[in-house]
Amino acid sequence: QPVAQRGFCRWRLTSCCGQRMVAEVASAAVVQEVKAPAIETPKGKDDNGADLLPKNDVTTGIDERDVNTPDKWVPRHPDLIRLTGKHPFNCEPPLSALVDNGFITPPSLHYVRNHGAVPMCTWSTHSVTVTGCVATPLTLSMDDIVALESFTIPVTLVCAGNRRKEENMVKQTIGFNWGAAGHATNFWTGVRLRDLLIQAGVDTEKGKHVCFVGDEDLPNGKYGTSIPLPLAMDQYGDVMIAYYQNGIKLTPDHGYPVRVIIPGWIGGRMVKWLRSIEVTEAPSDNYYHFFDNRIMPPHVDAELAKAEGWWYKPEYLFNELNINSAMSRPGHNEILSLGRSKTYTMKGYAYSGGGRKVTRVEVSLDGGKTWRLCDVSYPEEEQSVAPSYGRYWCWVFWTYTMDSFELLKAATTAGEVAVRA
Fold first, then answer.
1. How far is residue 335's CA from residue 252's CA, in Å, rounded to a whole number?
2. Which terminus of the chain faces fewer neighbouring Cβ atoms within 10 Å, N or C?
3. Per-residue pLDDT tens over the stretch 307-322
4. Over the stretch 205-242, which tens digit does the pLDDT of each residue have?
5. Catalytic, out of 91, 121, 133, 159
6. 16 belongs to the catalytic site
7. Tell me, what's the pLDDT at 305?
8. What is the distance between the alpha carbons of residues 413 and 421, in angstroms, rounded to a whole number?
9. How far apart are CA 410 and CA 379, in angstroms?
10. pTM for this structure?
11. pLDDT over 60 (residue 7)
C-alpha cells in the first residue's frame, strides 16, 4: 500500500493491492511510419510476465467499452484500466510494465489524460494559427509545419495528478485517483515554438504570454492554457510543437496531428490537437487554465476555493514538475522467496521539473529513520543533447540491492520501506 509525500514514496509491506495492465493505443488510419530514432527494442518480459513491447507499438482494435461513446473510432487496448469509467478516457499502465519497458515508453503504454471526446482531426485539413502580438500572423497547415526545421528529443510527460491516489488516501482531493504510472517518455519530433514566433515577428516588448487552444469541444469551451513568453523563447527550453512520437505520427489520444510539448512542466499545459497559438499581454483567460492544475493550501477545499477566489490566485498555479520518486519493485502482491536468492534488488524511478537533475535517490528500510544511497542511471545522458546544456527532461532509474533477509526484517519490524529523491 503506497503512501505519498512530496519527493518520495513509502510502501507498507503488510498490505497490497492488485494491478491490471493498462495501455494506450492509436488509430491505424492516422499512424504512419516516419524515420524513427534509433531505439533498441527490449527483450524478455516485465515483472508481471508480459512481453516487452517495440517502442512504436500501437493497438488497432476497438475496445467494446468505447462502442457507444464518442470515441468509438479510437483503437485502445482491451485491458486498459479506466480511471474515470468509460468516458472520458483517462488511463495509465501498470507500474512494472512502465518501468520494465525501459527509458522510452511504447505509445501503447503511454498514459492518457482526456477531458472529453477525441476530435476527429485530419492531416490534410488541420491548421494552426499564430496571432496576437506578432507582426505577421500565420496560418500553417500540417505540411507547412513539417517543412520547417525540426528536432527530436526525449521528454518525460507527467500528468499533474501522478500518484494522487496516495494523496487521496491521506486526505481526499478534488481529482481522481492516479497511480504511480501517470507519466511516460517518448522521442518527440517537431518544430521549436521559438522558431514559429520568430517567423511571425513576435513583439517581445508587448507580449508577455503565449496562449494555446486545442480542438476538442468541452462543456466549458475549448481546452486552453498559457505559458510565459520568456519560456517559449528560451533556446534551451526546447518547447516544441510536436507531430511525431517515437518516429510515428501522433496517436489520436495524444493529440493527432499536432500538440504542444513543454519539457519539465506538467502535462496539463501541453495542449493536444493544437489549433491556436496567441501571444498576449495577459495570461490565458480560458476556463481550464484557471480551474485545472492548482495546488491549494491544505485548508482550502472546493467550496472555499470558489467562495474566496483561490482559483484565480496565480501563485497557486502548478506549472513546473515537483521532484518525485516511486518503487516498482517490490510490487503489489509480490512474494519474496527466501530460498531462491540471498539478495533482493529494489527498483523504481524518479524525475524532477524545470530541467533540474535528480542528484540522488535514497531508500529506507526502517520507516524513514535512516536512509541508504541508491545506484541511479541516467539514460537521457546517452540519448539526448539536453544534458549537454544542463537540462534534464526525463526520468531516471534507481536500484538498491540488499540481503533478502533485510527486507524480511523490514516487513516484520517497521513494516515499511520508503524511497525519496
1. 38
2. N
3. 888 888 888 888 999 9
4. 999 999 999 999 999 999 999 999 999 999 999 999 99
5. 159
6. no
7. 84
8. 24
9. 31
10. 0.89
11. no
Instruction: Check: CB of residue 184 under 8 Å from CB of residue 105.
Output: yes
Concatenated DSSP letters of 41-72:
PP-SB-TTSPBP--TT----PPPGGGTTSTTT
From the candidates 100, 211, 292, 324, which is the catalytic residue? 292
Please name the residue that has the C-alpha cell 489524460: 113
Distances (CA, A) of 385 to 52, 149, 243: 26, 17, 20
Alpha helix stretches (DSSP H) within 344-403: 380-383
179, 287, 334, 419 from 15: Cα distances, Å: 16, 40, 11, 17
Catalytic option among 114, 162, 293, 324: 293
CA torsion sign for 267, 244, 59, 106 is negative
At 32 the pLDDT is 40
Q: How far apart are CA 416 and CA 421, in angstroms?
A: 17
Is 70 exceeded by the pLDDT of residue 152?
Answer: yes
| Model pLDDT for residues 164-203, shown as the tens digit of each residue | 998 888 888 888 999 999 999 999 999 999 999 999 999 9
Catalytic (active site) residue 293:
yes
Phi/psi of residue 140, nearest 5 degrees? -115, 130
Pairing mode of beta strands 8-12, 362-364: unpaired
The answer on pLDDT for 33 being more than 50 is no
Active site residue 47: no
Q: How far apart are CA 265 and CA 411, in angstroms?
A: 36
Please give the Cα distance from 114 to 83 (Å, whole number).
Answer: 11
Q: What is the pLDDT of residue 23?
A: 25
CA atoms within 13 A on the CB side of 92: 27
User: Can you give the C-alpha Rg of the chain in angstroms?
Assistant: 21
